[in-house]
Design a protein that fits this description.
Helix content: 55-70%
Shape: globular
Number of strands: 0
CATH class: Mainly Alpha
CATH architecture: Orthogonal Bundle
Strand content: under 5%
Radius of gyration: 20 Å
Mean pLDDT: 90
Distance between the termini: 32 Å
CATH topology: Farnesyl Diphosphate Synthase
Structural class: mainly alpha
Number of helices: 16
Length: 342
């Protein structure tokens, strides 16, 4: 399938955008942590640390808006925490793309990833290596903050999700180097890993203070709902970031290419097919939330407090998807030629 520039259609989103009222406060301090970790260049002063972004490139990403749009119900303290994680995830993404994807340095990518694994320790008192770059410095700092007592149960699962996230980067690079476009059947679960989508339920719980009730958490319905929730994130991102990934990073791990290659269709046909698939996963989420989940709740005999907690979590999940959609469709990061600086 020939890869060329296409006019991408708008993504569908049924949930209204809600904005966290703490956005102005987050905007005022959005640079501080990134600069402290060495991700962002200083204000003219000399530095021995190599930054990932210039200030214009950093602000073009509008990470503060991403955080405030996806977590409209979070307190300022929780918003700050998730903002730092969002900054770190984008720092890893841009560093990895610049240092390894654009150079094809698979051996370097593997060595970088092996070292990063040493920082993903589920033990609260684990001794971490001395960081040698901004990405390691950022995750080492986050390991001390992401798991307060009310979220301690997330320590193992969150680090497992991050391990899958960074490992997926190496697999993406190997695919691109060999020209192997993943098959559609394998791609959706892989995209959950490569987008770090398994961390999103943590973010919703952080913002709302609500958990999916234990009695239904491992049910087929809830697992299906979470899969659809996570699939929309990464697959919609593929639509929004097609130009950046395919034409600037020479990446083959993108839903548009995957659909075209797997189905043997042209790019003109692959674009609407990919969009229909993204929209179908969002419709699956809506169907499960509105039809199957209420039946499960009644069968499981959830009490009033459990139902209220589930409703709060679902409202947070819908807000998360709406915020992502707004960021994908409005952030300069996904415009063609968006700035990147090392």
């Amino acid at each position: 399938m020939t890869v060329r520039t296409v006019e991408l259609p708008q993504l569908w989103m049924p949930y209204p955008l809600r904005v966290n009222p703490c956005l102005p406060a987050l905007h005022e301090e959005s640079e501080s942590w990134a600069r402290a970790m060495g991700m962002l260049e200083g204000r003219g002063e000399g530095s021995a640390r190599r930054a990932i972004w210039t200030r214009p490139a950093f602000h073009a990403m509008t990470v503060d808006q991403l955080t405030a749009w996806t977590l409209p119900d979070a307190s300022l303290a929780d918003l700050r925490l998730n903002h730092r994680f969002n900054v770190w995830a984008l720092a890893w993404d841009d560093y990895f793309a610049h240092a390894f994807k654009r150079t094809g340095d698979l051996a370097g990518a593997r060595a970088f990833t092996v070292r990063l694994h040493a920082f993903l320790r589920p033990e609260p008192d684990a001794r971490l290596p001395e960081p040698t770059n901004a990405v390691e410095r950022g995750i080492a700092d986050l390991q001390q903050r992401l798991f307060p007592p009310r979220l301690a149960h997330w320590r193992k699962e969150f680090n497992r999700a991050l391990a899958r996230y960074i490992d997926a980067g190496v697999e993406e690079l190997a695919n691109s180097r060999s020209g192997r476009i993943p098959h559609l059947i394998d791609y959706a679960p892989f995209r959950r890993d490569s987008f770090a989508a398994h961390t999103a339920p943590y973010s919703v719980e952080l913002a709302t203070g609500a958990r999916i009730p234990e009695r239904i958490r491992n049910s087929r319905t809830v697992r299906a709902l979470l899969d659809a929730f996570m699939d929309f994130m990464g697959l919609a991102n593929d639509i929004a970031s097609y130009e950046r990934e395919v034409h600037e990073e020479y990446d083959v791990n993108n839903l548009v290419l995957v659909v075209g290659s797997s189905l043997g269709i042209s790019l003109d046909d692959a674009v609407p097919a990919a969009l229909n698939l993204v929209n179908a996963r969002l419709r699956d989420f809506e169907h499960l939330r509105d039809n199957e989940l209420p039946l499960l709740v009644r069968r499981s005999g959830l009490g009033h407090d459990e139902r209220a907690e589930l409703a709060a979590w679902l409202r947070g999940a819908c807000g998360f998807l709406s915020g992502l959609h707004a960021w994908y469709t409005g952030a300069p990061r996904y415009a063609a030629g968006a700035p990147f600086e090392e």
